[in-house]
Amino acid sequence: MAESQTWLIVLTAFGFVAAIFFAWLLLRERKRYIAQAAEVKRLAFHDVLTDLPNRLLFMDRAAIAFAHARRGGTNVGVAFLDVDRFKFVNDSYGHHVGDEVLRSVASRLRECLREEDTVARIGGDEFTLILAGLKTNDDVVKVASKLLDVFRRPMRVGGREIVINASFGISMYPEDGTDAETLMRYADAAMYRAKQRGGDTFEMYTSSLNVHAAEEMRLEARLRIAIARHEFVLYYQPRFDSAADRVVAFEALLRWNDPDRGLVGPSQFIHAAEISGLIVPIGNWVLRTACAQARKWHMEGGRDLAVSVNLSARQFHRADLGATVRDALRKAELEAKFLELEIDESCVMNNADAAMRILRELKSIGVCVVIAHFGAGYSSLRDLRRMPIDGLKLDRSFLVPNGTDNRPLAAAAFGMARALRLKVMGEGVETQEAADFLHSQACDEFQGFLFSAPIPPAECDRFIHVEPSGGAAGFRPPAHPN
To answer: Which of 427, 424, 472, 474 is nearest to 447 (CA)?
Structure first.
């Protein structure tokens, strides 16, 4: 009897402990389920990389902000933000650094906005903001200016200092629209205009932007057709050696042979090509075509002629630039020393360390590298001294008819180039006065309308076969009839 009671007590205790244990398991599973549900909910409404609200949560908060604004008689700003040249960061440093930059951007945006505001990441390097409770449009301008200043501070990422900027577009509730989709679309259009202005700025939405955006979209579509139909052509502007008194190179200049408008200059379409990214396939075509033309000139007797090709910023910072240049030279069977690549000064100086790596690769191929528009971007002498380049092309602003005050700066640029043992070229030479000034500075090569406008390949022969007439002292290259 005593033994059975003992067993009953043991079984009861065991049952009690088991009940507690199972209750604990159920509680733990419930907590885990609640945590998982909360995490699923968070992931459904937040960006994984930055932990910012995503598009869904942004739209919900925008509706709440608009409702408060209606009751309080205030305004709401909707901003669309894009990080300038973010692709360059990814291509130069790797996607892991790009991710760190995006996290830093998210952190900075959180820090400088108020509690009632919202910042969201909607994909890539694009962020959207809700700026609530604004009394006037001037308030949003103050916030935008503050954000631009925040971005201009260098970031310390992966042991290196990176400077990035951003472009903003801003639309206003209720002035520009009353729903989030419309206001985001308008803010996006305004941001696009800010990008076109060079970035590192903001633009307020206006109704005219819709017309402009539609025109840009039509132009981009037309450019895609032009690429497919091979409507682009190259003209060539000769460059004269002042000592040898003859043409030593031709600069390849892009033209669009539009069936509707005729020959269209680059100023009317090149920016749209840059913004859309179409400049890459167009630029690669220019490179291949110019190399083939130089090889043709060599076969026809102009054996020491070089061809000069301008690289866009997008081309210059692409990881496959070296392979593209090698491929163009190989297909044309052109020696690398006869290809000259012109790179805009601002493109090189904006990130000198990354530019150094690219320039070293180009020099390893054997091509000549020239910094174009030199003097417009106030290059650092320290950076220039260590860059593997062959020459400088003086910016035409030094030679404009009313630019006498700029000539001391031009003379200083010549002195710098001579100290660095670099070839110096003058472009945009349109007057004899400008040519005489370049002579006085012992400029190596001249180019401009005083000597010749850009001409089609068929007209280049008359410059290629001109006999030298006696050197720099009597240098008067044949003028183009136009």
So the answer is: 427
